[in-house]
Structures
1.
Amino acid sequence: MIRGLGIDLVENFRIKKIYDHYGYRFAKKILDNDEIRDFNISNNKVSFLAKRFASKEALSKSLGLGLYRKNLYPNKIRISHDDYGKPFFIINETLSPLINELKVTSIHLSISDTSHYSTAIVITENNGSS
């Protein structure tokens, strides 16, 4: 059963302005340590940051929390990809207590972008209880 739905749309230009001003410090506020490694080898750093930010914001919305509540900071949320490129959230020490408390059984993530925008949709599911 669907528990929550979150969507976020980011103007890549806004991320570029922030990244141009703050540089690597901004990346460290958005990305966890493993994501930083991927970011460092990325050919399009602005797109990478925009898609990760949109994904993490969409997750926070699908959980009904918003970022920065209940220790849900962007740089404490990790996204990876399977062998086919499908993105997914790593259930780490930040997400595990939240998904247990909220009785989330599945998290689905879809990311898309153009040269101007990045978007992400997150659907959270539970087994039908609360």
2.
Amino acid sequence: MSSVSESMNRRMTLGLLAGQYGFDLDPVSATEVTVTSVADDVESVRPGALFVPSEDVDARQLEQVQARGAYGAIVPHALRGQVDDIHIPLIYAEPTMQQLGKLVAEMAGNPSDSLAVFAITGKNKETVESAVSNLADFLHMLGNPVGVISSSDSQSLERFLALEYPLSIIDVQRTMAVCAEDGAAAVILALDEDTLRENALQSVNIDVLACDDNSLSNAEVTKFVSRFGCFVGKQTRIAGRTQESDLLATQASSAYVDTDSRLLSLSIAMVLAAGVRKANIKSALRVSRDLN
């Protein structure tokens, strides 16, 4: 289901949308029409939705979304004059991926702004999945309610999320909004092609980014994740295993008999990069060891 609706935090008028992004609204009298969700495929359209097709669109599809209750649609200028039988407002535009990401994030309430966002990438899908799972367990041990977005197992806290992969821009924003609404403090993203489509992370603010390959430079990691629309800015910390994290992981090995110490080390390095004090990590590892 590619729609932002379950956890909508904001409504938007078509006039505001067109004005903010420089799009052409037809008719201009539709400025006060308010959309309450965004969908990128016909089946996901609900009453009040703005239809933003992810592929080429034609009059037949517009008739379908109109019948399903859409309040508007974004269509290319090439369709002007060819859709006279469509009576919902149309916004003529060719939005960039950056514009689409910003629009969807705004409709979803910019969920990544209220979450600590961790992302893990790498060349080995299985290793990435294991690293995501290990980090989720580690953050939970530190007392943080966590959401996970991964093709192997997406969850919002303890709730399993049935998603269709790979995820689009809309899917990612919707899922993060669900996690935020459920009370998650952090969300962990698996950055791989099974989980995400190209540009799926537009307007997602990532706090800590890590790669399972410690041999890659920060520039190489940044380039590696760029296909997902992942912007690595000044606020993003790129983490990797260090001697310090390796030592802490080794010291805790008795509590993690079935866990690869390298994965635990990567989790520790990411949490340190997020600003968690080493003393708190040591204390949590000690408690976990005592319980085991």
3.
Amino acid sequence: MPKVIKLENLKDGSILAKDIYINSSVLFRTGMLVSSELINYLKRKGVRSVSVFDAPAFTPFQNTFIPKSRLPEHQHKELTAQFQNEMTQIADELRYGRILHSEASYQWIRGLYLKFYSNPTVRFLMDCLKQWDPVCYIHSLDVFVLTSLFFKHVNWKVSQAFMLGCLLHDIGKLYTPVEILLKKGKLTQREYQRITEHTLNGYRLLKKMNFPEETCCVARSHHERLNGSGYPDHLHVDISDRHLILMMIVDVYSALTMNRSYRKPMLATKAMQILLVDSYTKHLFHQSMCHLFINFIHMFPPATKVVLTNGESGIVLADPTVSDILPKIKLWKTGQVIQLPSDLSVTVKTIIGWDSRDFIEQQRQTWSAFIHYLIDGDHLKALDCLDTMSDGMRIEEVFIKLFEHAMDEISHMLSLNQLLKAQYMVASSTVVRLISWKMMEITRQLRASTMGEIVIVNLDSIQGLARTKLMNDLFTINGWKTELLVEIDDGSMISEIVRLKKAKFLAFYCAQKSQTSLLIQLTATLHDEFPDLNIFVHGSHSGILANDRWANRFRLSTNCSELIRNMKYYLVSQVRT
């Protein structure tokens, strides 16, 4: 029997017994699994009570599936219509190549879909995921379809439990805040950390519901990597675990080529190029497995080394005027450039390698152009380069790898007299403008400040403005409400603002060695009035203070990576409290 429960008494694992409406629109439907994050979401929406079933409306997983021939007619019709509708969202030739041109392959995957969705527990979880995050639901189905078709294509034996894991690999995102999942901009480091928790949350949920251990392990381990850089357990995935490695590759390919809340879908060949970079230079995936997947999709990115069905070998050329399915090939033996014919009389037989030099050179040229446009003050062209280079980065990575790195390079050029001071100031001003533009995008997506007020002081001249702006915005991104003071060294003024803002935090940008004595004098005065004030000191010469007798007052950083580590001390403390 359903019963009405106040939100403060609602428990993780309950099942909604009645639709929840907000402004006459259905927010969640009957049968939705109540997770701790759903409870938090309802609180933020102002919902005070909900109707739930007295006992769970689902049974723990039982390894029983109904063959499609024995499905009740109404269920067969319903699931078939659902399958056809969902396949139109994923099975685009620009992503799938020709793998579903065969009617037999289409009917085979349809049968597998009907079989898995005939299980009430599997369907229950997938329906919950569809309500919580429709994009994640379609991605999960896409990974399931692509991995299933791949294993069939290469004739690998694979367990039903593993394939269940492919379908349910992201089920832990039921415990990820929906605002993060549907965020349109880049993730902050804190938001990314919340996303990573879906692996363990999925593992625990599936274990709790009695799914096979292999199914649970796919949910837990699908973000591990060959070199141990993945999560949650930092495993060095062995090549012998080829099913999991292939599924990891498919997971990345699907995420890159499908429409996401934060970006448009990527071309298949561009996604393949990223997978090759991850395999050849970052050692995240095994090269041979990456080759197998590219052969399966049969779309080959530029610089791919291939053997053709006529026995000739060559390299795929970049040419936006031709189809990715029928690329141009430069033959090694003769140097002749051919385009693969539309009658498929000659096709690619297999990939045998990839030349990373073109990709590395392209990256170098984009970076050089970025620096040139900064110095030239060309904001729009610099922004184009920035957007190209920042694809796939988290917000803090953009600040560290692009903005800070650019300022380091420009400062180095100035020190070598390769730049006039006026050019340095133009470049610095351009960086400030780009940061401001990016922050306009980011702040629309930020939650309310949770860390309190921080006063940020630039002790440097106007030359330090770009780096002070970097520091200021990193604090904003990580939950502080900032008050930026540009070029000020008046201790009484700083004290007055700290008092006015009731700030618990103060940060100085200190780039000149000569400023350290002033800094010590200022902080000594401030410490007398504000003994609990937390002080950050950031800048290339801040390390000098490490040996000072007042060093225990400061959190010192010489670069943005160290600054973020110092922030984490307080972020973690807040989480614990």
